[in-house]
């Protein structure tokens, strides 16, 4: 039986070599590289997590042509991510067309953060495989660490910022626009394996606004309860989150739906820089 055109990387030095090459395309490769870095740490702490980092040539990683598959467990929905430094994208296209690593008949999956330069190619592949999905555009943003360290937190005396804990996961999940029957496990991982912050009024235990770090390292699950909006709490949380990352020498980032005008204005006002357009592909389940 012949080998698949995608081979899995197991050695940490090979994965580091792959990431080093992909980082030469920073900040465009930021989402993909941070996903691999963080998900490796998650898998080290939770062996139930599925993580496969697949390349077309494990002996020559210079062009970074790769596919990453992630799921919270063996039965959870799979997330596919990809990237390549090859200008034509032809190597990645041919590998996708011929691989057996992907169940093209399954709708229990999604394609995540496909860079605008790869999106036309992936769309051709999906159409050739008769995979009819919903294409959802987003914008990728980031902020240099030095800039983030100088952010004014704009804290307010009538509220407190507290760390999120596992007991907050249901609250976050119930208000998340992408909630699914499986998403609670993902939210718990974001809080327990990464971090999150919440806002509460002084003297009151209930959270009125919150944010958590996603598996790709960025601002996620940002939400303010309806009766407490327009008071600057989301702005304050994003600033706190951003500077917290910068203090750890991590690059702050955020992904925003291209039609989410309020979030676009918020993040650009804080100082985030738009990098590119990226796409999610979702399937009806």
Automatic annotation (TrEMBL):
Pfam families, per database record: FR47 (PF08445)
Organism of origin: Diaphorina citri (Asian citrus psyllid)
Domain spans labelled N-acetyltransferase: 159-285
Gene that specifies this protein: LOC103505710
GO terms, molecular function: acyltransferase activity, transferring groups other than amino-acyl groups
Protein name: Uncharacterized protein LOC103505710
